[in-house]
Amino acid sequence: MQFLILNFFYLALILLIVKKWIYRIKNADDIRNVILSRDAALLLILLIIGFGPVYLLNNDYIPVSQTISRELQLILSIAMALLISGIWLMYVRKIDIYESEKWKYVITVFVLGAVSTELALMGYKTLTAIGIDLNGQIINDLIYCIFAIGGLEETVKIIPFLLLLKFTRAIDEPYDYILYPSISALGFAFVENIYYIDSSSLYNIGGRALYSTVAHMAFSSIIGYGMLLGKYRNMDTRQVKAFFVFFGLAMLAHGFYDFWIINYFVSSLSFLTTLFFLITIHIWFILKNNAINISTFYDPKVMLDNDRLKWYLVISLSSILMLGYVIVSIVHGLSSGNEYLTKAWLAYGYLVLYLTLSFSRYRIIKGHIGKLTVPMDFFIPKPVRKE
To answer: To pair with 30 at 20 to 30 A between CA atoms, which of 8, 18, 158, 367?
Structure first.
């Protein structure tokens, strides 16, 4: 019974899918089509993920050292980090509706983004060696977060995109300036997430999937957006100038996001990071929508299905939390798993809904550039109205 109560949100999601099917079934042929559909396979996966730990209900707490090895924990961390990046990579590709990018370019940028983490580590070591580091002082840590963390990480994340822009012809429409920086950021986040998930003994899955990974994509996209404006819109500026202006904005945003989490004296105001994050992803949505609107391959016959995006996001993001529950239950015992699940839904349930609604309300208007404004009720995203 405790399991069922804790999984209420997840169960409600499954019931919504079943309810959707009921309205689709009119005859025997419809039943067969539903059973053979990809939605049926997806529902099966949901059921396995959601109810996989049931057999643990009668298990006592088992210490980690007696259940899995250190190597297996690392493997699970790598698998979850890859799943997180994979889910978001598929999302940003689903929005690329006019000219899908070749997988060879997507994979190349992702791998280069992952490799770029080594450059970041080298940069941090160099800064530490010359005496530049966090010291707990508010001004010092704020400057460090903006110029060291923000400046360094945004630099290494944008390099794969710049290499692709310089040496290939893959980037040939505005949305590519959002897509490829996001993919590079996902490669960077993949390696970073391995460390944070592993060092947290597999507890920090939800935070990495819903906060950090999305933030990395949004910050890198700011730079790409500046460059697309310099190229496709007459801003009286060139791409190089636009690059440095928007790089500065990305660096500032990244540093401000991190500061309220890192510095001890302002940690009580860490809710500002969440507030700033919600504003950031609201703006990121506008950047993506604008880039699609001014696509050089615009085709009025091609539509972006917000409903499919909505279902993809709510199922994928919910499943990450549930899969985290499965892993924590198996590794740390059912009592720890139940505690993890309760805290996960309390901490991230709203964010799952917010991301789902925020990232599935595109309105394609040819040539339209929406203003980068944040409404007062931005924390309650509204689904786009069907025409």
So the answer is: 8
